[in-house]
Amino acid sequence: MGLDAQSQEAASFAWPTGLSLSKDSLFVADRNSHRVRKLSLEAKSCSSIIGAGSDPYTLCPQGVLEYPCDVEWIPDLEILAVAELCHPQVLLWDPKDQSTRNLAIESGAIPSGLSYSPEHQSLVISSTNKSTLTIIHLGTGEEKELDPS
Predict the structure, then answer these.
(1) d(Cα 11, Cα 102) in Å, to the nearest integer?
(2) For labelling, which of 29, 53, 100, 122 has a CA lying 20 to 30 Å from the CA of 63?
């Protein structure tokens, strides 16, 4: 068994905490391996796509990925959003060129969960430290907290 395996059956995980499907892949936030994993439904294989692996303080091309806790596939833009718990950020990963960029969160929220609304082109982010939901429009960058009242 290994973290990067030729088959899905041989793949091992270390505290998988978030899942998201695209039309041909399952993405997994694998918290304690400090990685985001991609299971190819067509090739029936598993690989690490973001993260440094065993040492979370080692910089990978995307920066430090210590505890990814959720992932969300955004089909309109064909990118993957990744919630990073210890370094309050949401990473946006583009599979076309394997690049990532940070999605700025002005509210100071520590992201723990993600959900995408295609109708509103917005990413909803749950926050562990503020016990709030923040909505970010991916086209304009406008951010607002959801008022539950």
Answers:
(1) 28
(2) 122
**Is residue 47 packed enough to be buried (19+ CB in 10 Å), middle (13-18) or exposed (0-12)?**
middle
Distance CA 110, CA 89 (A): 7
Confidence (pLDDT) at 4: 53
The distance of Cα 60 from the centroid of its chain, to the nearest Å, equals 15
Res 17: pLDDT: 92
The model's pLDDT over 84-129, given as tens digits with 9 standing for 90+, comes to 887 788 999 999 998 888 887 877 788 999 999 999 999 999 988 8
Is 1 a domain residue?
no
Does residue 126 sit within a domain?
A: yes
Backbone angles phi, psi at 62, to 5 degrees: -90, 0
- Provide the residue range defining the domain that includes 45: 8-145
Cα–Cα distances (Å) from 45 to 38, 63, 70, 82, 93, in that order, read 8, 25, 21, 21, 19
